[in-house]
Structures are given as structure tokens and as C-alpha cells.
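Lesson 9: reading folded outputs for more than one chain in a single document. The general rule is that every protein is listed as its sequence immediately followed by its C-alpha cells, and records are never interleaved. Here is the first one.
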Amino acid sequence: MKIEIQGQDAVQATEELLSIEGLKGSYETVGEIEREVSLATIATIIGMTVGTMTIAEKLYQLKKKYFQNPTGSRIEKVLIVAPNGNRLLLKDATVEQIQEVLKD
């Protein structure tokens, strides 16, 4: 599974994502860290050692932190791509939708 995060806070959000207990993976950056330049990271998840509902809930909490934050975090887009090609934009996703794509 791959998770693409775009925006100035992409590295911070990706590191937080990969620190979720039960997720194993790594990431690479695409673009440069400069003022007014969009940055993207692509996290490759190679294993989940806990249930998909637990991971889905953690991703949902991460979404709330970055997209519903009144201080205006700088994340523009988070896209989850399952191994079978199913895609889900995290911005408007429910916990159930996140869990479904994690199962794929």
C-alpha cells in the first residue's frame, strides 16, 4: 500500500503516520523543501501488525489533526492507494471507508 501526502507539512505528517503503532514502512520525498513550493511524500506500508479498524481510526485522527485544524496546517492532499489499485482521498473519508481500503 502507498500513501501520498502533499503539502508543506508532508514530512511531519508522514513521520507521524509511520509512527503509528502497528504500521511498518518507509517514505521518500518528492520535491524540495522551499517556501511556497509544494512538497510530497510517498509512504510505502509493508506491514500492519494490528487490525485494519485500529489503523483506520488512527488515520482518521491524523486526518482531523491536519485537515480540521484551525491553525491551518499545510497539508493539501492525502491519497491512499491499495495494492489492488483502489484509491481513497483522506480529506472527506469516514473511518469505515478508510478501513475498507486498508482491507484491499
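And here is the second record, again sequence then C-alpha cells.
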Amino acid sequence: MDYKDKYLKYKKKYVGLKSRVGGGTFEEEIAEATRLSLETEPAGEKKEDISPSFDSYPRILSKLGDTDFKAGSARGDGYCSIWSVIIGRSLISEILFNPMLLEQFGKLQPTTIQEVIEILLHVSNIILILMDSGDEYKLTDTMPIFKLELNEFIFQLETPFEYLNIIEGVGQIKILAYLMNCNIIIKNSLTNNTYSFNESGSTIIRISTNIGHYYTHNVNTTKDVALITTYWWDHMWTWFTYPPLVGTNDKMIPFIN
């Protein structure tokens, strides 16, 4: 199916839908859901003070049980950038995506990385349709996304997993920040530049990258890695065979040097 056919397929399915929120068009429904979603974040989530510098929040690593084998906080399986954000979310919430937004896109909370990818692709294609002939779409009050960013992201998500080395571009970060209602702050460790996405988000996720790999940073400035849920951490290392785990009962454990 070429791009034009795919566009028409999604447009026919979604653009004409009526709002479950206020009885308007689908585009109005999404806008209203975005506004209301800020009110439906899990209880206890507060946007923290961001006055400490990025480097005050230590980088999380992983190790295999009590062995000497160590790795990063995001598995290097091609989805490391997405994993870094998922693990960051696991530090602040049991729920991955905002329920209100998922409902408006006709989706349930994912339980596997394959379902996460399907949701990201689904939402990205709908946003692309909502752009229509424009070049950008305002995901939130503080974060637009551009057609070029979405097209790049969609192309990479549709690439067969076995050929995927890393997902590039900020389209992925914007869609994740949008669906999680989070402010995602990224530091490029090669240039020391820091970038902030969705500053109106209710919570903060910090990640860093050397372009070849991504890392999650702790939610506070201590060395205590307190994951609110370990579900996604465990799934990340086991969703398909991870050689260091073969033949052992050990688990990959998060830690900070």
C-alpha cells in the first residue's frame, strides 16, 4: 500500500467521526481530550522543580544480578530511544499512556512493546491526517509537530524490526510526550545541548543520548532507583531473547554508579 492509499484509508476511517467528548468533529474531540487529559493523570503525579541542572539527575544503568555484566538503562534493540522514555515513565507512574487520550484514539493501555509500537504508529498516522494540507499540527499548547518529523517517524516504525538499528528524529519524542502528558528533557551528551519537549506536561522525564544510544536519568537527584512499576523494565529485557540472560535465573537490575 503506497502513502496515498494509506492516507485515504485513515482519512475515511477517522476524519468523519463525531466526538465522544462534545459532539464535534474528530479533530475537535482530540483537542478537547488533550485539554481534559491533564486532569486525568494518575493521582500523586506532580511536576517537580526543574531548578537543579540536568546533570544533577544521575544516569541509570543495569547489571545482571551480582555478576560483573553491566549495560545501559535502555535495551539496545533498535527501540532504545522509546525504551528510555518508557523506563522514565515507570519512575513516575504505573500507567504508560494517558487513558483519556488513548480512549479518543480507540486504544487500550499496551502490555507489550509490539502494542506500544502499534499505538505510536496509529496515533502518528491520525495526526498526519489531521494536518491535512498543512505542515504542522499543535499537539499541545507548547509543542507542535511537523509533517517531516511525523513522516520520518512513521517510516522508521514501519521498517521491519530486524533491519532497525535506532529510531532517529524528534517525532518519536513528541508523540511519546503527548501521549504521556510529560515534559521530556533530552541532553545530547556529545554537544552538551539540552532540549525540552512539551513544557506544559504535568511530569518530567529526563533522558540523554550520544546519538548511538539512549539512557534514562533518575527522577530525583539521589542514587535510589525507585521504579513505581517494574513491569516495563522486566519486559524490556525479556520480550525476546537477551543473550546474557540465557541459562541463568538472574535478572537485569537497575542501579546508579
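What the second record shows: Residues 6-23, 42-50 have pLDDT under 50 and may be disordered.
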